[in-house]
Amino acid sequence: MSEPADRRYGPATLPTARGPLSAAVVAALRHPPHDLPVDLGVDLYPTDPFTDEDLQLTLFLCYELHYRGWRGVDESWEWQPTLLALRARCERVFEAALRRLVGAPSVPAAGVAAGLADLVAADDGPSLAATLQRRADLTQFREFVTHRSVYHLREADPHSWALPRLGGPAKAALVEIQTDEYGNGRLDRMHAELFRGTLDRLGLDTAYGAHVDVAPAVTLATNNLMSLFGLHRRLRGALLGHLAAFEMTSSLPNRRYGNGLRRLGFDEVATRFYDEHVEADAVHEQIAAHDMCGGLVRVEPALAPDVLFGAAAGLAVDRLFAVHLLNSWAAGRSSLRATATPAVPPTVSIVASPEVAPPALV
Ligand SMILES: [Fe+2]
Ligand SMILES: [Fe+2]
């Protein structure tokens, strides 16, 4: 059954809150843009920002306003100053945690491409791909695809933020990669569309953002990381480093994902997204490391440490994601969030000042 086009391509439905901060933001977004209170009375220093559901959802809520927006939410919220200020506070916590997680990678004398190769070679995370290839059952594979749908249904978009921020060889290389990601301008070849085929074959909702509510903090963190790097020009080096690490660790795992689906009896429509990446990313990794990141650093040498920081951060957060899935499955649990939990009531109420008291939109 075909779904309405507007649901397929977004905006997504506002997710359910996961704590006082996200509850306050969700409640505010249901009204026309207005100032948020300066002090939300919420602890913004969680012990583990990567697993803090409230922090990660709040960041995701804010970032999505720069992508497709949220269904029924006034588009002017995108640049509402007090919401941006709240986002900035959350970002400081998140970025500090990322820098603590990976430290400050040093740039080897051989250059930034060699540094990227070193980081990838040293990546000793558990092999989620091997599990999916050899052992995962259908339920677990569907979970994996559900997690990844948050990104793959907008595949490549976060890295496109870099395009207007670059010139010269790095820009040309990024365009070459992104052109493939967007199917060379053919809708049916766009990677996001190929992934829609995988979701469909696995009997999962193919709508944009359909699975945000069941995606745990660590899954949102893998997405928020890209948005953080993408939306800040000062982090353009980290954004390109992230993309390079992504491409350099993609070809073999994607072969394994495709093989896992074939083992479970799925056809080429289900595996096309993964099969496409086996060849494409073997090429992209060379372009990303040498032409794109190397090209950037030749023009802006001071950005070399940022490139390696972005790559290391991407690899580290992906490791946390893999550990979460594998530990959940080893314990006989779902790696997704349960959706039956009731919405968390806001402990702070965000309302406009009386003169601009907003009517509810939805
Ligand atoms: Fe792709
Ligand atoms: Fe790629």
Give the gist of this structure.
With 362 residues, the protein is mainly α. 58% of the residues lie in helices and 0% in strands. It is globular.
Describe this entry's structure for a reader.
The protein is mainly alpha-helical and 362 residues long. The protein contains 15 helices and no strands. Helix 3 packs across helix 4, helix 5 packs across helix 14 and helix 7 packs antiparallel against helix 10. The longest helix has 32 residues. The protein is globular and about 50 Å long. The site of one fe (ii) ion has 4 residues, from loops.
Biggest β-sheet, characterized? none
Small molecules (ligands, ions, cofactors) in the structure: fe (ii) ion
Which shape, going by the Cα principal axes?
Answer: globular
Helix content: 55-70%
Strand content range: under 5%
From the N-terminal CA to the C-terminal CA, the straight-line distance is 27 Å
**SSE order, one letter for each helix or strand:** HHHHHHHHHHHHHHH
Q: What are its keywords?
A:
362 residues; mainly alpha; globular; binds fe (ii) ion
Topology, pairings included?
Elements: H1 5-8, H2 20-29, H3 53-64, H4 81-102, H5 112-122, H6 128-134, H7 138-152, H8 157-160, H9 168-181, H10 191-201, H11 217-231, H12 236-248, H13 251-263, H14 268-299, H15 304-330
Helix pairs in contact: 2-3, 3-4, 3-11, 4-15, 5-12, 5-14, 5-15, 6-13, 7-10, 9-14, 10-14, 11-15, 12-14, 12-15, 13-14
Bound molecules: fe (ii) ion (FE2) (2 copies).
